[in-house]
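User: I'm designing a mutation panel for Protein-L-isoaspartate O-methyltransferase and want to avoid disrupting the core. Could you give me a predicted structure to guide residue selection? Please restate the sequence first so the numbering is unambiguous.

Assistant: Good idea. Sequence first, for numbering, then the predicted structure tokens:
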Amino acid sequence: MSGPRAGYLERIRQGGMVLSPRLATAFAEVPREVFVPEGFQRRDGTWAEPADPDFLDIVYSDDVLVTKVDGRTPVSSSSQPSLMALMLETLDVRPGQTVLEIGTGTGYNAALLSHLGARVVSIDVQADVVERARAALARAQVGNVRVELADGYAGRPGLDADHVIVTVGVAGISPHWPRPIVAPVEHAGTHPVLRIATDGTARVVTPAGFMTAAGPLTAAHPFPAPAPPGVFSELTPYGEIVFDPPLDALAYRDLWYAAGVWHRRATHAAVPGHEQSCLVLLDDERTGGATITPDGRISARGAQADKYAADARAVLDRWLDLGRPAMGAWRITLAAGGDPAAPILMPHTWEL
């Protein structure tokens, strides 16, 4: 590879991602720019187009490319390459196997699967997304991929799939999907990626955030993550710094995941002084509650500040007492929930 593509694999590996030779070849040979011919939204909100000088540099960065927005809400994208790589390695697809993909996006992920030797049926509920992905796959001369317009909840009747990969955030998995499944499943306001085994149990693969699916797959979570309140400001401290230096990003996500297991109101919000969203226990009014920042400091606001600060302290102490369990240490059992007319299997119990 040359030009902007030259360091692509190194950028994907930068966070510690280990690429198998087959997957490294797929990323090296499938041209990502073919799948974003109409451009994408930059991080600053401006639109990048193919003629722009920085277009290919961004395409071959390890970053998500938002390709469709509804107002200010992203509704379709090409996922972060290192996250795609981790999900594909977890899927462990072999040549000749059939993969059902829920959420087509740009078609790039399906193209990578095809390069790995899979036969792919990709389903998306957005007609324009389906047409663009079909056109991109044709331009890239990718074979063994069929893109269909449908609600992913029903799966693909009659398809004998070996694997399912889901590329949109869901509240649970459809009972119509065969296993194993790799899917981002809602938890505490985020979408950690789960691998659901053939016996129905699941484990966390990685923290992540995804756009939310439409239809029955968005059904209410048994531990509902309340809507984030925007900026969580005017906070009163309820304790001193616990971690110096602060928890790194992965350890903080471990704490966050545990909070979602133990507290129904765990979600995220922007907190002044922190570039990334922080863990919040949000009160019933969605305007108050408590936050735990990466340094372990607890702050709170609202009419129930004392209660939520105490809850936050209990979550933090419990996580520390258990030896700071990683999110991958939890064994998750699924159970039916959501709309009784269109049930989904959602995380129900957790054990270390």
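For picking mutation sites, this is relevant: The radius of gyration is 21 Å. The first strand starts at residue 40 and ends at 41.
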